[in-house]
């Protein structure tokens, strides 16, 4: 089994990249968006994109605005 540890410096790069994406998009952080953006940042990082500038630009290209949030469908009890 391959175990990879992430360094504090790597966490800083990931965190700053996500924060830069939020600032660029003028979005307010929320759990769902953070989950999507952080997951994408880690995926890009694991694919070899290791600088804040590179990660931020790729996040902005991939998510030019706040990701669409899933909306619950109305229940059968909803009044129409």
What is the strand and helix layout of this fold?
Layout: H1 8-25, H2 31-46, H3 52-62
Helix pairs in contact: 1-2, 1-3, 2-3
List keywords for this structure.
disordered C terminus; 3 helices
Q: Estimate the strand proportion.
A: under 5%
Using only C-alpha atoms, the radius of gyration works out to 16 Å
H/I helix tally: 3
The largest pleated sheet is described as:
none
Mean pLDDT: 85
Percent helix range: 55-70%
Provide the low-confidence segments as ranges.
Answer: 75-80
Shape assignment:
globular
Order of helices and strands: HHH
Distance between the termini: 54 Å
Class derived from helix and strand content: mainly alpha
Number of E-state strands? 0
Describe this structure in words.
This protein is 56% helix and 0% strand. Helix 1 (8-25) crosses helix 2 (31-46) and helix 1 crosses helix 3. The longest helix has 18 residues, at 8-25. By secondary structure, the protein is mostly helical. The termini are far apart. The chain has a domain at 9-62.
Give a short synopsis of this structure.
By secondary structure, the chain is mainly α. It has three helices and no strands. 14% of the residues are buried.
